[in-house]
Amino acid sequence: MGLIRRNSYRKMNAQGQSFRWIPDERNINLYSADPSNPQLFGGISQEQDGGTTLNLTDEALQLGMLEISVVSALLLLCGRSID
């Protein structure tokens, strides 16, 4: 997850809502953009064998976030600058 600096995040607007992809020590987590009460919707993790796992909550799936999250994971982990 070297592309994302510590204490940084990426904003995302999808399905009429705002979200943030926020890295921690091992994952890049998807939260609602509400800073006072952020809700966790899922996360991306990279395995030691090089694989990538995308986990989404049931609520994220009900909001139609699967395809958007797959594309976001690809962009966040592709190794290219997205700034």
Got a strand count? 5
Strand order of the largest sheet: 1-2-3-4-5
Q: What is the helix content? A: 10-25%
- The average pLDDT score comes to 86
Number of discrete helical segments: 2
The outline comes out as globular
- What structural category do the secondary elements indicate? alpha+beta
Characterization of this structure:
With 83 residues, the chain is of the alpha+beta class. Helices cover 20% and strands 36% of the residues. It is built from two helices and five strands. It has helices spanning 58-62, 66-77; strands at 10-14, 17-23, 27-32, 40-46, 52-56. The chain has a five-stranded antiparallel beta sheet with strand order 1-2-3-4-5. The longest helix is centred in the last third of the chain and has 12 residues, at 66-77. The chain is globular. The two termini are 16 Å apart. The relative contact order is 0.19.
List the helices and strands and how they pair.
Elements: E1 10-14, E2 17-23, E3 27-32, E4 40-46, E5 52-56, H1 58-62, H2 66-77
Antiparallel strand pairs: 1-2, 2-3, 3-4, 4-5
